[in-house]
Automatic annotation (TrEMBL):
Gene3D superfamilies: Aspartate Aminotransferase, domain 1, Type I PLP-dependent aspartate aminotransferase-like (Major domain). Belongs to the group II decarboxylase family. Keywords: Decarboxylase, Lyase, Pyridoxal phosphate. GO terms for molecular function: carboxy-lyase activity; pyridoxal phosphate binding. InterPro entries: PyrdxlP-dep_de-COase (IPR002129), PyrdxlP-dep_Trfase (IPR015424), PyrdxlP-dep_Trfase_major (IPR015421), PyrdxlP-dep_Trfase_small (IPR015422), Pyridoxal-P_BS (IPR021115). It comes from Cyanidiococcus yangmingshanensis. Its cofactor is pyridoxal 5'-phosphate. GO terms for biological process: carboxylic acid metabolic process. This is Glutamate decarboxylase 2.
Amino acid sequence: MERVDDPKKLDDQGLEVQELVASEFRELVQIVERKVEQYLFRAERGRSENGPTTDGAPRPLVSYQRPETIEHRMEGYVHQIMDGESVRSRAVLECFLDDLLRYSVRTSHAYFLHRLYGASDPMGQVAELLLSVLNNSPDTFSAAPFLVVLERRLIQALCERIGWETLRQGDGLFCPGGSYANLLAMTSARHAFHESSSSKRSEHGHRHHCCEPRMGVFTSEQGHYSVRRNASILGLCDAPGEACSDVFLVPCDEAGRMDVEALRQMLHCFRRSRPESSVFVNRFRPAAGSMASLRRGFQLNAAHALNADHDAESTKSRYRPRFWIHVDGALGGSFLFSTQFRSVALSGLEAYADSFVLNAHKLLGAPLQCSVLLVRERGLLLAAHAARASYLFHDEFDPDARYDIGDMTLTCSRRSDALKFWLMWMWRGNQAVWNARRIAEAMMQRPCFLLVGWSRVQPYPATNVCFYFLPPELRGRVHSSADVKTCAEREQLARLSVRLCRALQVAGKALLNYCTLGRSDLPTFLRLALHGAHIYHDERVRDLLDVMERFGDRLCIDDATLGRNDIADPGSIQSSELADGFREHASQGRRAMNEGF
């Protein structure tokens, strides 16, 4: 390659490369933009159950195909990739994009109620595009100056919203998901506990964590699986699925909230048997999506009892607790932006919580993923995780190094998810969507639905609606899960929940989910996961319930006609509407297979 020493020629070559990149980007964006616009338009038209698409046919939420069908469809592309040849064919690219969009779930559909995320905010989508173009990693100020300052200022604003910043407290970090944020909260708590104890040190001055009393982790019996997984990572148990002597499951009340009296008794027994151990309390409930007031939960002064050796002055000067309260608000934490429900769901957060997690990709509708961990003690994240890699972090020589945040996390290079949050907050302002109560109240008017964990007068907000579809013989007789007396009835409700969920999925009408809490008196139930992307007005609620009721009634009719043992799989349902749906999707699959590449 010819060596070029002339600075002007170097600049010209650099501009030429940038122009080529920009030209290719423009061409690719034009192709993708047209496809995405059609995709979003069809999802919009398909929000009503019978909403037509551009071709006049109802647009399903998902064009369901068996995994083997999709694998077979993908083989042609795989062979092209494995041949090692670049295929710069617009036709092949468009064909692949068509397959990608056709066989993917339309999370922008109003009846995508399967997960805790849904349609992403358009401003968040724009932020994703900007992040891909910038390709900056916000680990040091020198690598991503604007994004690093933006993230630090956004963390400060969130701490102010909680109430920590006024006390010169608060720190935080955007993380790749809520489970990862929960892990950082646990490692930060462990570091704080060990710093506050008279830990033994090696000849090099490092602490021996193996010599420290093991941390006890208390979480709800309905808590998130990441608690056990993170405990396993920290060496508190052998494997996430095994019993653990250091992870304690606190019973819940009928509404799924942590039983505070039971927690207090468990903490008392723990402290008597292990007086030197520290305590990490995790408060959350992912399945039903409800949040109870922290002030209500911790007004028992448990924190004071466990931290009796810390007087007020020492707490003000250096926050070193033996009792750590972590609030996993991955779902309900978005109530921080709701003037209506913040005082109910998050009351006491500023006074009692030591760490707090919020997932903006759930209720707030940010594109996956956008999670943030906030910690009360400023500087703790850095102290707990810093590896001080000298080839990246130049604390001694770089005056801007005080802005570096890469050493606060377990990774270094990462995506600047803070930009999505920032642009959405700037563009949308403080708004919250309240859909669950509207749907729950509508269900109460229909005898075929039985709500789980809801009452007509509910003192706490919830973002999910959990329910059963009742067969005709149980309607009017069963008013709560406690009225389901026999094992046969429980099995019937559980089976009907799974089959209704599956039938709606295969027909492309709606995508729900079903859950079990491991209680013999509470069989598997259905769950609607509501998020902030859609407003569920009365007509949309009625349409959704009509769809579920019609499919559920048809399942019950076929159940009675064919016998329960004959229809364990919804694919064997013989009703005309469901059978038509299955046949239509099968024919779609055959047409797709015959189109070729």
